[in-house]
Amino acid sequence: IFSGAVTLNNHDLVLAPAASNLTLSGGVTGTGNLSLATTGAGTITLSTASVNNTGTISNTGTGAGTSTISAAVGSNVTAITENSATSALTVSGALTVNAGGTTLTNSNASGSALLTVSGGITGTGNVVLNNNSAIANGVTVSGTSVNNVGTVTNSGTGTGATAISAVIGTNVTGVVENSATSTLTLSGANTFSGGTTIKSGTAAGTVAAAFGTGTITIGDTSGSANATLSGGLAGTFTNAISVASGNTGTAKITDSAASIFSGAVTLNNHDLVLAPAASALTLSGGVTGTGNLSL
Description:
By secondary structure, this protein is mainly beta. 0% of the residues lie in helices and 41% in strands. The chain has no helices and 32 strands.
């Protein structure tokens, strides 16, 4: 255990235990990137005093030992990346977003190691979630609420989903799905009112309040990306739904359970496709506006 304060003086630092566990508890400050790189069964733990280096944190180990950040992560940190096929990274300490945004990424080309953020997210700035892997729920946000003043955007390039089960709070100004391949799954009793925008890909909700209290917008204002709203609840979503104009992609509502969308649906010079899978799909709030409806 190294309990003293660690200062990075314009230089990176690699933590690389082998068979034994390694703990830093005195905090990390200064300028430089921090790499967690276990080479064996030894775990890495950053505890107690905050980790607030001006730079990034990456988990790149080749061993099976896990990496855990139970200390708070400060706003100087701009990105946290899981890039180990064998060593999972868990951030259980409170995360304060950087003013310019904080990016949370799983970039594994193989393996099954997750990036889990469970200590809550606060501060002023946007959060970007990138599951660039094929790992199911490779980026998982759980536990304490997400309540940054800013947006939460899923924009990964992988086929694995991103899952947010933590409550998304009232400070969040909007949730954006912007990945053609990585589904965003929302399963918290969310209270944000800024709306959910599906610019590209699929956003799925599995509880009634998954999409908060605001309007769900299907489609971007330009481009050709397809956008899909998916109900994963055998129950009712009350959000109003707006189908965006300006794009040439397909706007779709589907479900994986017998979902009911009771909010009013408005077509803004754009068509809408209703395409349930094995379960019944119900719209009960009416459809207005300009566009064709395909069943």
